[in-house]
Amino acid sequence: MLQYYKDGVTHIGYTVPSFLPPWVNQTRRAGLFFIGNPRREPYERGAKLYHVKDDEKPRVGRWWTTATTPPIAAKLADTKTKLRQAIWRAGTYYELSHERASPVERLILLAIALESLFSPADKGEFTFRISLSAAQFVGRTPEERHQIFKGVKDLYGRRSALFHGSYDLEKYNNGTFVTNAEIEIWASWIRRSLCGFLGLYLSGRTDRDSILSDIAAAGFDPAVAEDLRNSSQIDRVLLGGA
Q1: Mean pLDDT for each 10-residue chunk of the chain (242 residues)?
Q2: Which of 37, 112, 124, 176 is the residue whose CA sits 20 to 30 A from 106?
Q3: What's residue 29's pLDDT?
Q4: What are the strands, taking DSSP E only, across the chain?
């Protein structure tokens, strides 16, 4: 639940072995597998720890309380509808992205999550349409929608370079082909998308294609766009509109 509540890297199996004095880490860490396959280094060298602040705790508690009630739990466990299946697939890859230390691996997982939510039934102008749908659904302002549109196209451009073996080898080897900072931006948009789709699903929507049609219509009708963004707010379900 914490992976959906706010941006940041967190997962239940996150372990980083550490020794004192510090130099021992350089000789021992790589050979330890006593708790599965732990990370060799903390994310961003421990500079970006996941924190739940005191003033956030009541809201987190209300999310958890509502999400675990029998009606909501039953809806989350039901994977029969197309919309729930899309959310399940996207959520699986989004959650896996928290476990991977390599930005390149996270890029691939996030791209799959994005496609699970926004890929059109026909594949014409695939990247353009996914980028536009994500921008319309997630962006709160025209400026942010433009940023998301360009950012998602960039994500797909780099994924394509990976899959087709056309990436810059020097950038790949020195860690600048894709950075953690870029991954954090993309992961944030996907988290917000997942929460929006979950909000619509828990409010009674079951068909992903009809949601994509509404997103497309939102580009031409501000009223449709505003209604879609309001009705997709997950807090309306988990916090009773608070």
Answers
A1: 94 74 66 58 86 94 93 93 94 94 94 92 78 93 95 93 86 92 96 96 93 91 89 89 53
A2: 124
A3: 53
A4: none
When computed from its CA atoms, the radius of gyration of the chain, rounded to whole angstroms, is 19
CA nearest to 102, candidates 9, 15, 236: 9
Query: 205 with 82: CB under 8 angstroms?
Result: no
Longest C-alpha distance within the chain, in Å? 62
* Identity of residue 119: S
Q: For 105-160, what is each residue's pLDDT tens digit? A: 999 999 999 999 998 876 667 889 999 999 999 998 999 999 999 999 999 999 99
- 112 closest CA partner among 194, 195, 185, 169: 194
Distance CA 150, CA 80 (A): 34
- Which helix (H) or strand (E) segment holds residue 133: the answer is helix 126-138
Please give the tally of structural domains in the chain: 1
Range of the domain at 103: 2-238
Q: Which of 131, 105, 103, 99 is nearest to 118 (CA)?
A: 131
The candidate with the shortest Cα–Cα distance to 29, out of 41, 21, 11, is: 41
Peptide bond before 21: cis, by omega within 30 degrees of 0? yes
pTM over 0.90: no
Spell 66-96 as b/e; 16+ CB within 10 A means b.
bbeeeebeebbeeeeeebbebbebbbebbbb
- Name residue 93's amino acid: Y
CA-CA distance, 97 to 168, in Å (whole number)? 23
